[in-house]
Amino acid sequence: MHNYWQKIVIKCLLISIFVSFFFTCIISILPISTDECVCNAKDNNSKNLPNTESSIWKKSEHKLAILVPFRDRFEELLTFAPHMKKFLDKQNINYHIFILHQTDKFRFNRASLINVGFIYVNKNFDYVAMHDVDLLPINDNLSYEYPDTGPFHISSPDLHPRYHYPTFIGGILLIKRDHFIIVNGMSNKYWGWGLEDDEFYVRLKEANLKVYRPKNISTGIHNTFKHIHDKNHRKRDMAKCFNQRDATRKRDRQTGLNNVSYKIDEVVNMTISNTHLTLLNIALICDKSLTPWCECISNRTNLTQKN
Ligand code: UDP
Ligand code: MN
Fold first, then answer.
1. Dihedral angle at the C-alpha atoms of 162, 166, 168, 173, nearest 10 degrees?
2. What integer pLDDT is reported at residue 102 of this predicted model?
3. How far is residue 270's CA from residue 259's CA, in Å, rounded to a whole number?
4. Alpha-carbon gap, residue 205 to 183, rounded angstroms
5. How far apart, in whole angstroms, are the C-alpha atoms of residue 84 and residue 20?
6. How far is the CA of 171 from the centre of ligand 1 (A)?
7. Residue 205: CB within 6 Å of ligand 1?
8. What region does 174 belong to: left with phi over 0, alpha with psi -120 to 50, or beta?
9. What pLDDT band is residue 141 in, cutting at 50, 70 and 90?
10. How far, in Å, CA of 271 to CA of 273, rounded?
11. CA torsion sign, 200 to 129 to 168 to 74?
């Protein structure tokens, strides 16, 4: 009888050792925290961000595409890329830089390139910066955060080194996706330098979108941005031919995001001084019956059309 009870006790002991071993194994493979995951599908696409403070995540939850119209500005790009990385990393902005490289033989068309860049990034980004390659923000208080209430003109006329008229909206402008779509993007009629940004201002105004600008910046027009633009080396294409002068003074209701004509020939991911960026080789297509001035032949009579 004594032997019988001894056997039972040993069996019980063995079973309890096995059971506790089994549960220890199960517990050890469970996640450490059982807090609910607050991440969403968007975060899965995000770049790796520091996750030390939840406020940082909140700040960076919107994704910014920096759209840089570009042709023949390689030296400026070499300065721009690392500068922007340093500047935006300090603000914990979740961004990616897209260089919109115009490869066709037509005159430069900043606005159409921005339309193409927007279409390319549209589904994956929450807001865009239309960003000149030669304008570097140097005051850390210039915020690149999500412009929820209305377009945010970073290079405001009070701060831009060169342009000071009140309706100026060029240089650097942040705008969220919906707002860019509401106004049908930018006009495609502006080949050569100038006025495409002024036309865009009218689009925003007509759509009742209030333009916001930086507040409490004390650095003024000389020390808020660095404009790396030598006007002799990088000549502005101010030629006017055919009826360009008249046509580009009017609000364009014909063209925009919905009918920009182009082909993306190549997408190149590259790194410049530790900054990852994507270069799009874009061939714009010109409808010469609509905008014959996409090529100004070097005939003096055409170039000096009277006002
Ligand atoms: N740009 C370019 N190549 C050109 C003309 C313009 O890459 O041949 C781009 C570049 O991003 C530049 C922006 O368009 O910063 C605005 O042009 P620009 O600097 O000539 O105008 P500004 O604002 O100085 O009058
Ligand atoms: Mn410039």
1. 100
2. 98
3. 29
4. 10
5. 57
6. 9
7. no
8. beta
9. very high
10. 6
11. negative
Task: Enter the pTM of the model.
Answer: 0.81
Task: Name the token pair of 111.
Answer: 């606005």
C-beta 132 within 6 A of ligand 1: yes
Please state which of the ranges 11-15, 43-47, 91-95 shows the lowest mean pLDDT.
Answer: 43-47
Task: Please give the single-letter amino acid code of residue 44.
Answer: N
16: part of which helix (H) or strand (E)? helix 2-29
Return the SS3 of 64.
strand
Ligand 1 centroid, distance to 108 Cα (angstroms)? 9
Give the dihedral sign, CA 232/234/239/244: negative
Q: Report the DSSP pairing between strands 225-227 and 135-137.
A: antiparallel
Mean pLDDT across 49-64:
57
Cβ atoms of 191 and 293 closer than 8 Å: yes
Residue 297 pLDDT grade (very low, low, confident, very high; cuts 50, 70, 90) = confident
Residue type, 226: K
* Per-residue tokens: 272: 């410049």
Burial of residue 229 (number of CB atoms within 10 Å: 0-12, 13-18, 19+): middle
pLDDT exceeds 70 at position 59: no
Q: Among 56-70, 138-152, 163-177, which stretch is predicted with the lowest mean pLDDT? A: 56-70
Spatial separation of the C-alpha atoms in residues 47 and 140, rounded to whole Å: 22
CA 216 to ligand 1 center in whole angstroms: 28
Distance CA 195, CA 37 (A): 48
Q: What is the DSSP letter of 99?
A: E
CA dist 184 and 205 (Å) reads 13
Residues 133 and 70: beta-carbon distance below 8 Å: yes
Tokens for 151? Answer: 């377009």
First to last CA, the chain: 121
Substitution site in 70, 109, 116, 131 for ligand 1 pocket (most atoms within 8 Å of beta carbon): 70
* Ligand 1 pocket residue status of 110, Cβ below 6 Å: yes
